[in-house]
Amino acid sequence: MLKTILSVSGKPGLYKLLSSAKNMVIxxxxxxSKKMPIHARDKVVSLGDISIYTEADDVxxxxxxxxxxxxxxxxxxxxxxxxxxxxLRKYFEEILPDFDKNRVYTNDIKKMLNWYDxxxxxxxxxxxxxxxxxxxxxxx
Length: 140
Known about the structure:
Layout (H helix, E strand, L loop, with lengths): L4 E4 L6 E6 L3 E6 L5 E5 L4 E3 L4 E2 L6 E2 H11 L13 H11 L10 H16 L4 H14 L1
Antiparallel strand pairs: 1-2, 1-5, 2-3, 3-4, 6-7
C-alpha cells in the first residue's frame, strides 16, 4: 500500500496514486480527497521507497509506522509535532532506538509523524494491506 502513497515536493500532505499517463500521474489527496495531476517535473517519492538510517542497516518506513502504531495503540501521535527537537528525538528513539542521530534530522522526524497521522486519519491500515500485497507477490 505504501508504494501507491506519494509525497510530492512543494505540496503539503500525502497523495494516493490513481492512474498514470505519459508525462504525469493523477493523484488524490488523503487530506481533502481532491484529485489533481502531478507532472513529470514535480519531485514525487513513494513512501514504500523511503527508509530511515540506523547505526546498522536502513529500516523501511512501514516498519517505523508499525512501531508508532504499536506505541500509540493504533491512534494518532501523542507528542506535539512542533515541540522541542530534543523531545521529538527522545520520542523517536523510543520507536527506533538505533536511528542514526547524525543523518536523521528533526525535520525528518516531524515529517514521518505527520505522515503517520495523515495515514491514520485517512483510515489506511498499511500493515494489513502490505501483508495482502506480499501474499499476492508470493503467489505470482
